[in-house]
């Protein structure tokens, strides 16, 4: 049975933190405020995968009230989500996600992000599609206050 899940995440940009998106550190003056490393792309992908598998959401599995997840690398969380799906006998078909940020420009970083996500989930790069867009200076991302991501996942479940 094929199942679809969707995920969305957003965090504020703040000074004094590194910016990590799709498991890739990006040189920028600001990073994302979060309990973990704040990787909105991987968080949205985790939620999409968990949703497709009927396993709730990222906050249920990795609560921000648990110090074990303080400043955790979100790639660790993504790998754990992939393992949960595999334990259920599920197989990931493909992932599609969009990063929403006015700045920094992200297009040049998308290939490295795809490679890291594919490696973490044991997928081919061709199973991962990533896009980056702006909202033409509108909203909190357009004003440079934060970065958001949305994602969909297709999995095959027994």
Task: Describe how the helices and strands are arranged.
Elements (H helix, E strand, L loop, with lengths): L1 E14 L3 E3 L2 E3 L3 E3 L7 H14 L4 H4 L12 H14 L3 E10 L9 H12 L6 E6 L5 H4 L3 E11 L2
Parallel strand pairs: 5-6
Antiparallel strand pairs: 1-4, 1-7, 2-3, 5-7
Helix pairs in contact: 1-3, 3-4
Features of the shown structure:
7 strands, 5-stranded mixed β-sheet, 158 residues, 5 helices
Distance between the termini: 6 Å
Order of helical and strand elements:
EEEEHHHEHEHE
Contiguous helical run count: 5
CATH superfamily: 2-C-methyl-D-erythritol 2,4-cyclodiphosphate synthase
Tell me the domain tally: 1
**Assigned CATH class:** Alpha Beta
Widest sheet: strand order?
A: 4-1-7-5-6
The rough form would be described as globular
Q: Strand count, sense and closure of the main sheet?
A: 5 strands, mixed
Q: Fraction of residues in helices?
A: 25-40%
Q: Provide the gyration radius in Å.
A: 15 Å
**Portion in strands:** 25-35%
Corresponding CATH architecture? 2-Layer Sandwich
CATH topology: 60s Ribosomal Protein L30, Chain: A
The mean pLDDT is 96
């Amino acid at each position: 049975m094929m199942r679809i899940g969707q995920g969305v995440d957003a965090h504020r940009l703040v000074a004094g933190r590194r910016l990590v998106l799709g498991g890739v550190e990006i040189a920028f003056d600001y990073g994302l405020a979060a309990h973990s490393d704040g990787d909105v792309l991987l968080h949205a992908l985790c939620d999409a995968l968990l949703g497709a598998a009927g396993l709730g959401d990222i906050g249920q599995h990795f609560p921000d009230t648990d110090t074990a997840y303080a400043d955790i690398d979100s790639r660790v969380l993504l790998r754990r989500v992939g393992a949960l799906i595999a334990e259920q006998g599920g197989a990931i078909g493909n992932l599609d996600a969009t990063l929403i940020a006015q700045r920094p420009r992200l297009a040049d970083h998308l290939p490295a992000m795809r490679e890291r996500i594919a490696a973490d989930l044991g997928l081919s790069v061709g199973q991962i599609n990533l896009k980056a867009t702006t909202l033409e200076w509108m909203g909190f991302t357009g004003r440079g206050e934060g970065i958001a991501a949305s994602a969909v996942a297709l999995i095959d479940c027994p």
